[in-house]
Amino acid sequence: MTERYKLFDKKTQAFVYGYQVNAIQRMLDFDYICKRETPSIAAIINPGRAGIHKVFWGTEEILLPMYRTIPEAVAEHPHVEVMVNFASYRSTFETTMEALGQPGIKTVAVIAEGVPERKSKIMTATARNMGKTIIGPATVGGLVAGAFRIGNTAGTLENIVESKLYRPGCVGFVSKSGGMLNEAFNIVARHSSGTVEGVAIGGDRYPGSNLLDHIMRYEANPEIAMIACLGEVGGTDEYRIVEALEEGKITKPLVIWVTGTCSKVLPTSVQFGHAGARADSDQETADAKNQALRDAGAVVPVSFDDYGDKIGEVYERLKAEGRVKDVVEPEVPSIPMDYNKAVASGLVRKPTTLICTISDDRGEEVLYGGKPLSKVIDDEMGIGGVIGLLWFKKELPSWASEFIEMVLQIVADHGPAVSAAHNAIVASCAGKDLISSLACGLLTIGPRFGGAIDDAAREFKRARDSGLTPEQFVNEMKGKGINIPGIGHRIKNVKNPDKRVELLIGYAREHFETTDLLDYALQVEQITTAKKGNLILNVDGCIGILFLDLMNSCEVFTEEDVESVVELGYLNGLFALGRSIGLIGHILDQKRLQSRLYRHPQDDIAYMLPSRK
Ligand code: ACO
Ligand code: LMR
């Protein structure tokens, strides 16, 4: 347990209330350069989400636990004495009071600005009655050099290293302003062996702890040889210091300056930034307070400009008296630079893990194949045009994108009895959600159903390009025992032709420059249907074959494009995409009907009879 004159040491652990990821990381980075053995944060309290939060601990990543409430965090980490409260001014009162109510929590840093003065007074009185400490509200916090940092105190790590805050010096510092605290860390480091502890009590009129509270802690702390303070125009806090000096309670040298001396040149009382920085009487002016402090024996400079010199003079005197020594600098671990910052400054590069050549969302607007989405819409490219951009990286002529749209409409559904619809319906009736049921349906697409488009394109192209006559092709496939992909249908036949195939052929004959492959396929169909009426060119076959005719008719495609479409298998995507429309319809239909499936009827299943012996 820390002694009360010391609010924090190298073992202190805090709760951070509020999901302040940057401040959390800054505290841990400070720990790293101070060579702390344990992180200064035991846990995060985030009312929005419990779980874990990933942070850097030096160059490695560690996990901090995250709780929704203060009691939950306290129950898991009873040794924690400090809460850094980033709650907004709206909830800071309730959360601070709740923290003060936990016996183990001894110090609460209240960061929020704008806490109502009435509530501040209640928080302060509660803390005082319990012998606890509040730093703030309206503060950056404070820092014990080489040990513990509240939130963002002292700014960047570079500033912390410049100000030598990674190890203790001999000065205890307190101010109202957080900005001045950061400035003072620098001044103190340049004019003495550095800071032991620095606190900003916050700029409100009724801070939870006052300047004298911290000065008295510094007085009691044997590691601190001299005290430095920056007061502020407005309020009477500095007169408590005057009284303590007069009563001999402050024995260590105190260098103090009250800022805001310029207020006298202004015609009326002006508030300087902080709620409390406004002189409502002569006594509250910076000049009056500086004079009173000087009279009481404090070291008061002539202006802020020689504040550092005064600290230096006192330090040199103490050194000459053998009461302080210069510090031997420890080795400071080099600060790992954040990857994003290093990239931004051009210091590092790394190979990417993924490549994308079809779209780009890094700018203001997503690009499809290099074209801004708004232009895609303005140009009325339609879903066929978008497929052209994202699948083929080409701007297709309108007749080609219309063909794609026709395919999607045509394959959208073929009733509930086909494999995909059946499976999606079963999954939906079994209570699966839309996406799972859709995936279940799509997974049946394969060589016997819907997934013959690519195979048909490949096989018919191969046969035609290698000069096989339709008859030779049919015999060759029969010889291999392979069903010709794109030929054959369970319910459609020559007498009951597939209307979809007729629609596609009609469109192609009207709009395509060439339908060579289709003509070849129809000759194959003549032979197969002569054997059996259902061995027609089916919808999969027709799409695959016509797509190659489309590519050959369209000058944006090269012969290599055609080869790659055939080789990589683009075209089953058309069936999967189009059929998803119908599958989603079937799933929603079942959900509307609230269909529930527990078992298939047994007469839907053929069972193996028990073998008789
Ligand atoms: N090429 C050559 N002969 C075939 C073909 C074909 N594509 N399909 C069936 N046959 C023959 C079979 O060898 C069998 O001959 P047999 O009676 O002499 O033994 C006869 O036709 C019946 O075969 P089944 O497998 O019973 O035919 P079924 O009507 O069940 O099959 C199917 C329909 C699955 C579409 C089948 O024709 C086939 O596998 N076609 C190739 C794959 C294909 O194109 N699938 C897409 C279908 S359309 C769609 O899913 C949207
Ligand atoms: C379909 O488009 O799903 C069908 O042609 C398949 C079938 O068996 O009817």
Explain this structure to me?
The structure is a single chain. With 613 residues, the protein is of the alpha/beta class. The strands form three sheets. It has a seven-stranded mixed sheet with strand order 3-4-2-1-5-6-7, with helices on both faces. A six-stranded mixed sheet has the order 9-8-11-10-12-13, with helices on both faces. The protein has three domains: 14-320, 3-Layer(aba) Sandwich (Rossmann fold), CATH 3.40.50.261; 359-396, no CATH class; 445-570, Cytochrome P450-Terp, domain 2 (Cytochrome p450-Terp, domain 2), CATH 1.10.230.10. The protein has helices at 21-33, 70-76, 92-100, 117-130, 157-162, 178-191, 211-220, 237-246, 286-295, 307-320, 339-344, 373-378, 382-391, 398-411, 419-429, 434-442, 453-465, 470-480, 499-511, 516-531, 539-553, 559-568, 572-593, and strands spanning 14-17, 41-45, 51-57, 60-67, 82-85, 107-110, 133-135, 142-144, 148-149, 171-175, 195-200, 226-232, 254-259, 359-360, 367-368, 371-372. It starts with 13 loop residues before the first strand and ends in a 20-residue tail after the last helix. The longest helix has 22 residues, at 572-593. 43% of the residues lie in helices and 11% in strands. Helix 13 (382-391) crosses helix 14, helix 14 (398-411) runs antiparallel to helix 19 and helix 18 packs across helix 20 (516-531).
